[in-house]
Amino acid sequence: MAVFDHEVVIIGAGPAGMCAGMYAGRSMLNAVVLEQGLPGGELLNTEVIEDYIGFEHVLGSELAEKFAAHATKFGADIRPFTRVEKVKKVDDGTFETLLESGDIHRSPAVIITAGGTPIKLEVPGEFEYAGKGVSYCAICDGAFFKGHTIIVVGGGDAACEEADFLTRYAAKVYLVHRRNEFRASKIVQQRLFANPKIEVIWDTVIEEIAGVDGLMTHARIKHLPTNTSREMEATGIFIFVGFKPNTGVIEGHVEHDAAGYLLTDANMQTSIPGLFAAGDVRVQLTRQVTTAVGDATTAAIAVEKFLTARKNGHPAPDPVQMLVRGA
Ligand SMILES: Cc1cc2nc3c(=O)[nH]c(=O)nc-3n(C[C@H](O)[C@H](O)[C@H](O)COP(=O)(O)OP(=O)(O)OC[C@H]3O[C@@H](n4cnc5c(N)ncnc54)[C@H](O)[C@@H]3O)c2cc1C
Predict the structure, then answer these.
(1) DSSP class of residue 193?
(2) Helix (H, G, I), strand (E, B) or coil at 290
(3) Are residues 90 and 110 in the same domain?
(4) Does residue 262 lie in a domain region?
(5) Residue 271 belongs to what domain range?
(6) In the beta sheet, which residues pair with residue 264?
(7) Can you give the pTM of this predicted structure?
């Protein structure tokens, strides 16, 4: 076991973590970015990105490489395949970040940029057709389905709102829900039922996603009360059955919303002084690359100011008073 000291530890090298690493590097901070896999985060699960300003069409993997190269050039120390197990505040007010390997990184400030994970259906074809029909993000991928017939899965606000949104592009949207009523709020449901392009398929689950030549062409769906299956033609399926923020590494209580997203003040500081959060792990109106890097910019600069105040013996502001409660 080895112990390392830094001014700031950044957990996760998705867009937010790499951007925070770049700004920390440019501020000449002794920073490290700890990543459990390869740098890129959800970019590595995204075929094409068309809404990152300045890039009309870029592969997710290509953007990830560009972020990593740019961040490294400006001083970010990105450590791939370095999984964080726990981050905890210790008695002297600093943090210990404990790795799976047993090593410990100590720092007065931590930025958590560990993102989140869309909950999967876990059906055959879901992984195979990811980015080739299967999507977890309407705002990201909706425009690829102009004039198409698509399926949306889920029954909460996200599924109903995104089904409605996707009719801007799709000719027809089947909203497949496993129950016979929605959990979505009434106003969202009203909008949904008033939309002539949406047809709700109740009491039904997805059994399989299938296609031809690597592109989705249909799904097999099962009506639960009658136990009958049939094929539904669709070139896309948008899955909104939940999203889980990766906050499990934080030891102790930190303020979060009902879904587990971290609450922060306008400087991205959480309710634990010195612990900052940026990107998908945080309460957000929308989760995009632009919002992740925006948060990360603020967080890294706020950390620099936090460390300066700490060195000069200034008290840190009470972040709980400034929490952004989110939408
Ligand atoms: C399928 C899909 C398509 C998308 N398409 C678009 C699009 O077209 N345009 C767009 O703007 N946005 C898109 N998004 C959203 C965008 O990818 C995210 O908003 C963005 O990646 C969030 O960045 P992040 O850094 O906050 O989190 P993430 O990208 O999730 O990165 C978090 C990183 O933290 C790491 N990590 C987690 N836990 C640990 C741990 N314990 N130890 C070490 N590392 C850890 C993860 O491995 C990961 O690399 C899409 C998302 C998905 C799922």
Answers:
(1) H
(2) helix
(3) yes
(4) yes
(5) 3-117+243-322
(6) 324
(7) 0.84
10 plus 112 within the same structural domain: yes
**Mean pLDDT of successive 10-residue segments in the chain (327 residues)?**
96 98 95 97 86 92 96 94 97 95 97 95 96 91 95 92 94 97 89 96 98 96 97 97 94 92 95 96 92 97 94 68 46
Per the domain annotation, does 149 fall within a domain?
Answer: yes
pLDDT score of 285:
87
Report the nearest atom of ligand 1 relative to the CA of 289.
Answer: 11
**Which pLDDT value is given to residue 305?**
94
> Is the CB of residue 124 below 6 angstroms from any atom belonging to ligand 1?
no
Long-range pairs, 314-322, Cβ under 8 A, ≥24: 316/273, 316/274, 317/265, 318/273, 319/264, 319/265, 319/267, 319/269, 319/270, 319/271, 319/272, 319/273, 320/255, 320/271, 321/265, 322/265, 322/266, 322/267
Q: Which of 150, 76, 151, 158 is nearest to 113 (CA)?
A: 76
The last residue of one of the domains, among 185, 209, 239, is 239
CA of 41 to the centre of ligand 1 (A): 4
Q: What pLDDT score was predicted for residue 327? A: 35
> What is the number of the ligand 1 atom nearest to the C-alpha of 39?
49
Residues in the chain: 327
Q: Are 217 and 149 in contact (CB under 8 A)?
A: no
92 is catalytic: no
Last residue of a domain, one of 204, 239, 274: 239
